[in-house]
């Protein structure tokens, strides 16, 4: 068999190099050098995430908050709400707020969780650990998540409930998703409604599509559904301003607001009186916004927020901007 001279020389050289490396690994400090520089506890490796955790990272039991409700069985609250909607009632109207509290918001479950993945602590796509660290791992906070989907899959708030003992509000417009959400027995207030894209309550058409459902209230929404090749599955749903929900729960401080409504994020944010509510951090989906992430970012920064992170996943399943209130300290 004939072997070309260049290949023979290369082979001999490679073998010689391998023998030298084996010798040094055994007889010098090379192995110690490699070990020390690959130590994952090294500050150089950890970079911006070198904070020491001061809080637990396992499930904790807690007693969720309740609200006082006064429901009158004979009262036709749907008819009364229609009248308020027809009058374009203001978000802070006392009658509107009282009706939301008494007839729309449901109390946290007191039953054990009923989950597909009961041993899991973190259900988000990476948003939760980042936000947890930027809020200094606080316990006993308050969150709002819209849409709540089925209460488990991809939840940006479940960690805060299970581990940090936070109370919260889950908002989900799709009746099918909401039934699934209720079956999980989350320790949070919940409501089968949507966040209004206006500063007044409204009754709008919602097109059901699991995690791609959205309200259909203008031509942009209709065009989006058509371009996404989403089947028509409409249902009429009541929608309320974010501020109305917070007044109904007597809440002016929200530690984390997760907003994913498939295209109306900016419209919803524009209804929020940021001078009356203290929202510390937000995760907002941007990919379906007509103006893209730049328009959303400019608006939030005009309201006193820093844009900390733009999150994307290769398959397009995650497209969030994460905001934190300027000057926030814990």
Automatic annotation (TrEMBL):
Gene3D superfamilies: Vaccinia Virus protein VP39. The chain crosses the membrane at residues 6-25. It holds the Pfam family Methyltransf_21. Keywords: Membrane, Transmembrane, Transmembrane helix. Residues 145-306 form the Methyltransferase FkbM domain. One of its GO terms (cellular component) is late endosome membrane. The keyword Transmembrane helix applies. One of its GO terms (biological process) is endoplasmic reticulum to Golgi vesicle-mediated transport. This is Methyltransferase FkbM domain-containing protein. It comes from Mytilus edulis (Blue mussel).
